[in-house]
Amino acid sequence: MRLRVEYKVGPELRFLGNLDMINLMKRALRRADIPYALGGGYNPNVKLSMGTVLPVGVWGEREYFDLELKEYLQPNEFISKMNNTLPDNLKINQCMEINAKAPSLMKIINSACYSIVVNDTKKNLEQIVSQIINSKEIKVQGKGKKKNVIKDIRPGIYSINMLQTKDSVIINIWVSTGDEINVRYDELETVIIDFGLNKDNIVDLFRYGNFVKEGNYFYNPLEKVK
After folding, report:
1. How many other β-carbons are positioned within 10 Å of the β-carbon of residue 60?
2. Which of 63, 100, 154, 214 is positioned for an S-S bond with 138, CB 3.0–4.6 A?
3. Nearest-angstrom CA–CA distance, 218 and 205
4. What is the mean predicted confidence (pLDDT) over 5-28?
């Protein structure tokens, strides 16, 4: 049996690295008495496949992993057992059984939505967002492994919308995370500051979710299972 799982990483765990997250999940699986399957070899490991890596310093509303089980378990029972074991700032949102031959998360996820929480009004931010959307190119110095490369990320910025809350504005930016164009959260932060946002007004930054983009539609990986 193979499960696809959606989970939330709370703000308190934003500095937890990917390897630490994997180890935390494995410990939770053991403590929750989940009948997980093991791979072969001299050091058999849990058959757990994480989705796209959540960057250190960013928390996530909708992250994903695939898990193989050696026996059937109701998805609702899996959620209940895991949430009774995981810390309060790490929770399973939902899960479903998928075909054993379904493509991996890394093969299908090609986009994401990053949310920047700003201490300002929607009216004040409209000009900044408009300038970004109307730009023909937006060149930034790459981060991470490509830190010495100047790249144009404008083709990888699909859309931007804003949500006014009582005390702040949430700027949602939908971007490409594929092989051809991979737009990072820190590149977005640099761009929006370069276009006039006061850095001190940024209250929070998180990943709203990972998605499978087909045409003009964004599906979550549980919706798009072949």
Report:
1. 24
2. 154
3. 21
4. 96
Residues contacting residue 71 through CB under 8 Å, at least 6 positions apart: 1, 35
Last residue of a domain, one of 68, 84, 107: 107
Nearest to 6 by CA among 219, 186, 176: 219
- Looking up residue 140, the CATH number of its domain turns out to be 3.30.70.260
Dump pLDDT digits (tens) for 76-101: 999 999 999 999 999 999 999 999 99
Number of structural domains in the chain:
2
Q: Give CA separation, 18 vs 24, 41, 56, 188, in Å.
A: 10, 23, 8, 21
Domain housing 195: 111-219
Q: What is the pTM assigned to this prediction?
A: 0.92
Paired with 97 in beta bridges are 3
For 46, the token pair is 């849990």
